[in-house]
Every structure is written in C-alpha cells, then in structure tokens.
Design goal:
The protein has 178 residues and is an alpha+beta fold. It has four helices and nine strands. Strands 1, 2, 3, 4, 5, 6, 7, 8 and 9 form a nine-stranded mixed β-sheet that branches. The longest helix has 16 residues. Bound molecules: coenzyme A.
Length: 178
C-alpha cells in the first residue's frame, strides 16, 4: 500500500536526501535550480509517496518517491516547471514515477494551470505527452533537446517562445491570469 501526500516541511529533509541519492552530485548547479532560487514551490503539486498506510498524520513509512513543481515565466506567461521527480533506486521501474507524474499533472490541470515544462529525457516523458519545445530557452547550459513541454489546455504552448525566467518572488503562484 502507498500513501500519496503533499510534501510538508517535516518531509523536506527526507526528500532532499532522496534527491541526493537519485541524482549526480552537483544537481543544484543545474540551470533549473537557478529558476527556483528565492521562489516558493507550488505546494499543492509537490507530492511524496510513502510505503505503508496512513498513521494518522505522521510521516512514518519509507519515502519511495517525490515530485516538485515551481512557477516560471516564458514571455510573461505563467508556466509550471516540473521537477525534480525521483523514485528510490530500490523502487524504480514499478510505476511509481508514472503514478506521481499522472497524479500531479491531473491536479495541475484541475488547479487551472495551462502549460507545463521540464528538462529531462524525452524517451521517458513522451509517454505523458511531453514533446520538445521549440524556441523556449532555458538558462545555459541546457541541451535544447531536453527542454520539453505539455499542454494542459489545448494550444497553451502555441506561439509561446522566449527565455524561461524566474517567477518574481512577489507574484502569486496561482495560475489565474496565466
Ligand atoms: C526517472 C524516474 C523518475 C522514473 O520513475 P520510475 O518509477 O522508475 O518509472 P516508471 O516505473 O513509472 O516507468 C518505468 C519505465 O520508464 C522507463 N524509464 C525510466 N527512466 C527512463 C529514462 N531516463 N529514459 C527513458 N526511459 C526511462 C523504464 O525503462 C520503464 O520503461 P517500460 O515501461 O517501457 O518498461 C526514476 O527512475 C528516477 O528517479 N530516476 C533517477 C532520477 C531521475 O533521473 N529523475 C528524472 C530526471 S530527467
């Protein structure tokens, strides 16, 4: 049995440890992290997946996977930046990454977000509908082939081009006006 919950402050050290385990050293030097600095994540979409049943609100149960999202802008438009997503090495290939992806993307659509982007492996993310974003530039160094997008609302990426910029700290992460 699994328990899917929004990430809380109490979860964060464990999530960071999981990310350290799953990614190469120096992960925070990646350009995506520059876009997250000083910006609040989209809390409702940052999810943890633990083994075991609920214990009534505590954080017991081994952390198996986590996903996070931040708001960014492209040409002034609000965009969700997906990532990082990580599954514990002992639980990879069991569908947990897919579960987190589908669950969080469906929540994002229900919240009114129109478009999502990420930097990652197209062979994995294409199964969720992501494809290469032409003309959307991440801060260097980023391989353009890894810049992928998904429309949660039809046409949301059409004609949207430009450099990905950090959300201003003062801006609300709510998608209204996206
Ligand atoms: C990538 C990751 C999140 C996928 O989660 P998962 O629970 O292992 O994946 P799922 O069980 O949902 O899906 C497994 C499928 O994805 C494929 N897959 C996993 N990682 C892949 C990758 N990087 N590229 C292409 N395919 C990949 C597997 O081959 C498998 O394919 P199949 O369904 O055809 O057998 C997880 O493996 C992970 O945490 N990896 C280390 C951190 C990482 O690379 N994060 C993503 C950054 S781009």
């Amino acid at each position: 049995m699994y328990r899917l919950s929004p990430e809380t402050d109490a979860d964060t050290p464990e999530v960071e440890a999981l990310l350290d385990l799953c990614f190469a050293p120096g992960r925070t030097a990646l350009s995506s992290y520059r876009l997250r600095e000083g910006v609040a994540p989209v809390r409702e979409l940052c999810l943890t997946l633990r083994a075991g049943a609920s214990n009534g609100g505590g954080s017991a149960g081994v952390l198996l996977a986590a996903i996070r999202y931040w708001p960014v802008r492209v040409a002034g438009q609000k965009v969700l930046l997906l990532g990082p997503v990580a599954v514990h090495p002992t639980a990879q290939g069991e569908g947990l990454g897919g579960l987190l992806m589908r669950e969080s993307l469906s929540l994002a659509a229900a919240m009114g977000w129109q478009r999502v982007m990420l930097v990652g492996d197209a062979p994995y993310y294409s199964r969720f509908g992501f494809s290469r974003l032409e003309g959307v530039e991440m801060p260097p160094p980023t391989n353009p082939d890894r810049v992928l997008g998904l429309e949660l609302e039809p046409g949301a990426w059409v004609d949207l081009r430009g450099t990905v910029t950090r959300e201003t700290a003062a801006a609300n992460a709510c998608p209204s006006g996206a």
